[in-house]
Specification:
Blueprint lengths: L20 H9 L1 H23 L1 H6 L15 H5 L3 H17 L2 H19 L1 H6 L5 H30 L5 H4 L5 H6 L3 H20 L2 H21 L8 E6 L9 E8 L11 E7 L4 H30 L2
Antiparallel strand pairs: 1-3, 2-3
Helix pairs in contact: 1-8, 2-5, 2-8, 5-8, 6-11, 6-12, 8-11, 11-12, 11-13
Length: about 325
């Protein structure tokens, strides 16, 4: 009696979970940067939540006072005993500055590790021989970091705005400060994406890790410096002229001022005063214009990177 055993193959059931293909390859190759990015976001989130919990105490340590206390003013001794306001200001300033300059490390990493190193070592060409076209390779190299940068930078930006509570300039700085302006608006996300695009273009141009990292860093620094220098010209200013003398509120970003004196300059009341400034209501127009410029630069650098890659392919 012969028994015939028929081997059957059980088909796989269910859809595999998790990232696959090029996305998975990008995440795996750059897992060190991914872990660093995750730790940075975690630290920033924890710090900003803590800043929000001490914000009320920080405000109580930064109020007018009198000695002895009278007319509703607390005693100066009790106000000076509150030291958490300095810690709060330093914490908010640290995160805001990090958001302002995130473009620099992103550009250096994109030029060196993301693109330059893979071209220098030949890893990219190996991928291109395995049914992955150069355009798909570059698209994955840009899309994955862009999504992570947008999500991470945007989340920290929103947490930073939440932790600043009432935006007391004595604690968190004036809205027109160089770091404050870039660290509390959508332009922070745009700068991160521009750093990625500029670094990628540098990597494709030089195809060497260190030179590409340096050139990407320099290009990002140049973009940031130029826009910061000419930021006040991105939106029309307001001019206020009145007889006598007046002072602008602290919320006004003054650009120019002129005082007309009578027969004896510097003595008595001026004949008239004029000032050119940006009121606080110009914050969003300035943010939108600068964000648009930065995104255009990022798009142009991305387009140039794809064209450069196409020209160099046989």
């Amino acid at each position: 009696m012969t028994t015939t055993l028929t081997a059957t193959t059980t088909p796989a059931t269910g859809t595999p979970r998790g990232p696959r293909g090029l996305v998975w390859a990008v995440l795996r190759v750059h897992r060190t940067a991914l872990v660093f990015w995750g730790l940075t976001l975690t630290a920033a989130t924890a710090g900003l939540i803590w800043m929000h919990t001490i914000a009320d105490d920080a405000r109580r340590g930064n109020v007018p006072c009198a000695e002895p206390a009278h007319d509703g003013l607390p005693s100066c001794a009790s106000v000076e005993a509150i030291t958490v306001d300095g810690l709060y200001s330093d914490g908010i300033a640290l995160v805001t500055t990090a958001l302002c300059y995130v473009i620099l490390p992103v550009a250096a990493w994109a030029g060196g590790a993301l693109i330059g190193r893979e071209l220098e070592s030949g890893t990219a060409r190996l991928a291109w021989t395995q049914s992955v076209t150069p355009a798909r390779w570059l698209a994955a190299k840009l899309a994955v970091p862009a999504a992570l940068l947008t999500a991470g930078t945007g989340a920290v930006l929103l947490l930073n705005l939440w932790a600043r509570t009432d935006d007391n300039p004595n604690l968190v700085g004036d809205w027109y400060g160089p770091d404050q302006f870039s660290g509390i608006g959508p332009v922070a996300v745009a700068y991160a994406l521009a750093g990625l695009a500029l670094g990628t273009l540098a990597g494709l141009l030089l195809r060497r890790t260190l030179p590409a990292a340096g050139v990407g860093f320099a290009a990002a620094l140049l973009l940031h410096t130029v826009l910061e220098r000419y930021r006040e010209d991105l939106w029309p200013t307001v001019t206020r002229s009145e007889k006598g003398e007046f002072e602008l509120p602290r919320s006004a970003w003054q650009q120019d001022g002129d005082i007309t004196w009578g027969r004896h300059p510097g003595e008595g009341t001026p004949l008239s005063t004029s000032a050119t400034f940006h009121p606080q209501s110009h914050f969003w127009p300035l943010q939108y214009v600068e964000t648009g410029i930065v995104l255009v630069v990022a798009a142009a650098a991305t387009l140039a990177a794809f064209r450069l890659l196409r020209r160099r392919m046989p």
